[in-house]
Design goal:
This protein has about 160 residues and is of the alpha+beta class. The chain folds into 2 domains: about 40 residues, Winged helix-like DNA-binding domain superfamily/Winged helix DNA-binding domain (Arc Repressor Mutant, subunit A), CATH 1.10.10.10; about 80 residues, Alpha-Beta Plaits, CATH 3.30.70.920. The chain is about 35% helix and about 20% strand. The protein has a 4-stranded antiparallel beta sheet. A hairpin with a 6-residue loop joins strand 2 and strand 3. It is elongated and about 55 Å long.
Length: about 160
């Protein structure tokens, strides 16, 4: 596990809040020379701490009117079946996130679709036809908010 100092944590927090900061702006914020700051950012990437950068897009701008959580229970819990279903779920364009969880359900999938017909077709064609799937339940998302920053309770 990579040891993060105060400046590393500052860099991560700043980038989580605004990944478009230039290296010069980032260096100014953490009071480092730009070359030193760039070296730290590159080290955080190389060590797998800083994984990637994303743009947040308004779903409706892409014709996505419905988001839902689909809970999936598998028939069997063999490694093969779990991994096969996980790969399948992540291969679907509609699946935004796949969570392998404990409890009565095995997976919770966050999906984005055009409309209720698209959601029904996704559920029936992509999930209930899978031999490893025993049961699914769908919950529509009325509203969602997401914190862009991970908690820093260890710092």
């Amino acid at each position: 596990m990579t040891e993060l100092d105060r400046i590393d944590r500052q860099i991560l927090q700043l980038l989580q809040n605004n990944a478009q900061l230039s290296n010069r702006q980032l260096a100014d914020e953490v009071d480092l020379a730009p070359s030193t700051c760039l070296h730290r950012v590159n080290r955080l990437r190389e060590e797998g701490v800083l994984l990637d950068v994303h743009a947040t897009v308004e779903p409706e701008a892409l014709g996505i009117d419905i988001q839902a959580l689909i809970s999936v229970r598998l028939m069997r819990h063999s490694r093969h079946d779990v991994e096969a279903f996980h790969r399948h779920a992540l291969s679907l364009d509609e699946v935004l996130a796949a969570y392998h969880v404990t409890g009565p359900k095995d997976f919770v999938l966050h999906v984005a679709v055009r409309d209720t017909d698209h959601l029904r077709d996704l559920a029936m064609d992509a999930f209930t036809t899978r031999p490893e799937v025993s049961h699914i339940e769908t919950a529509l998302i009325y509203e969602s908010d997401r914190k862009p920053v991970l908690p820093d309770f260890l710092g």
